[in-house]
Amino acid sequence: MRHLFVILFFFNAFSPVFSQVESDTLKVGYTPAAPFIVTSNESMHGINVWLWKQVAKELDLKYKMVPMEFSAMLDSLKAGRIDISINPLTITGERSKHMEFTHSFYASHSTIVVPKSTSFQRLMNFLESFLHINFLRGFLLLIFILLFFGILIWLFERRRNTRDFRSNAKGIWDGFWWSAVTMTTVGYGDKAPKTRMGKIAALGLMLSGLLFVSGLTASIASSLTVDQLSDNTNSFSAFKDQNIGTIKNSSANDFLKVHFFKNIKPYSSVLPGLTDLKNRKINAFIYDEPILQYRIAKDSLLTDLELLPIKFDVQFYAFGIAKDKVHLEQRISQAILEIIETQKWEILLSEYGLNEI
Fold this sequence. Notes:
Elements: H1 2-24, E1 26-30, E2 38-40, E3 43-45, H2 47-59, E4 63-67, H3 70-79, E5 84-90, H4 93-96, E6 99-101, E7 106-115, H5 119-129, H6 133-157, H7 170-183, H8 196-231, E8 243-247, H9 251-258, E9 263-267, H10 270-278, E10 284-288, H11 289-298, E11 305-307, E12 312-322, H12 326-340, H13 343-351
Organism: Flagellimonas maritima
GO molecular function: ligand-gated monoatomic ion channel activity
Keywords: Membrane, Signal, Transmembrane, Transmembrane helix
């Protein structure tokens, strides 16, 4: 009985102390998001892991790491079940209603990942570009100009220069051949005008041909480039009617909804989405560029995927903090500002293949 009394006495005496220690220990939620948070063999490293450890050391913060799925982590942070998320959270107006954000430590963009095209597909895309309406219009106009000046030079030369321009209907072909050789500046010299009007017509062909060919070349090149980009789905708008994957409850997901993307498949993490993309279950995967770039570079099974040269939706990364911990957010923000101004921060980004935009 006496022992029981002693145990109860110590429990009542020190329980407030234990409660205080527990309440002072921050619950830090995270989910893998390489290169910011990399988990392997029960160890953690990455840009955000390093940054958080530096902040906690400087502010003498006690914390407990809590692994969570991304969507559940956001819900827990909003509800106050965790104190901090060290994931690279994008600062948005909607999220700011439910949580605090530290000072931003990195700026990035969203981008698009697609399966790499085979050599045959690239060849077919290029050949199909020649069927573009602008290319066909330019080609027909070129034929018309060559035929117009070919007939004109034949009319002027068919009587006094029958050696080069035959007087019968075959002379039209002679004129067409001469105008094509002249406009393309090949200059075989096998045919040449002799009459004054013929030479004036030749001068008109040379001047107009120089301007037309220059404009046509630029137009065709532009048309082929635009069409090739469209065929390779290198256009942001080209994906609006396709099956797109992204991360559930992410800023990229919100961005796609705002821009009227119709078929969005949400994923809990990047790897399942990229795996489905590789297996052609979706047409593209859209998410934060540094995370996608790092994942594809490090995973040998994803080498047949590529990032398109498209950047949109500028994002500013920060730690998320529970709404009732404003004072803590201010202390952490100040520490982050001091840390990212050091050379160690620049070296860290470089080690993970990142640079500030």
